């Protein structure tokens, strides 16, 4: 059971770092949330949730591969630049 708790905590921390990366990169580009959302083909609310706004602690950001590709394209970065390292070990989940 302790392994599952640690894996969940690692995942939550990882997703928070993803949210911070997304916010930082968007701000560096000088883009609004609305612009990124529109250009990535999602609603502003969906995008805000990816940056951590309005998401609950129980449901951290967990974008699909399609969403990651869209965001990376809009922000002109690689997916690797969006995703924090190191990746959490989720095998215990």
UniProtKB/TrEMBL annotation:
Residues 22-82 form the HTH cro/C1-type domain. CDD domains: HTH_XRE. One of its GO terms (molecular function) is DNA binding. It comes from the Bacteria. Pfam families: HTH_3. This is XRE family transcriptional regulator. It comes from Bifidobacterium moukalabense DSM 27321.
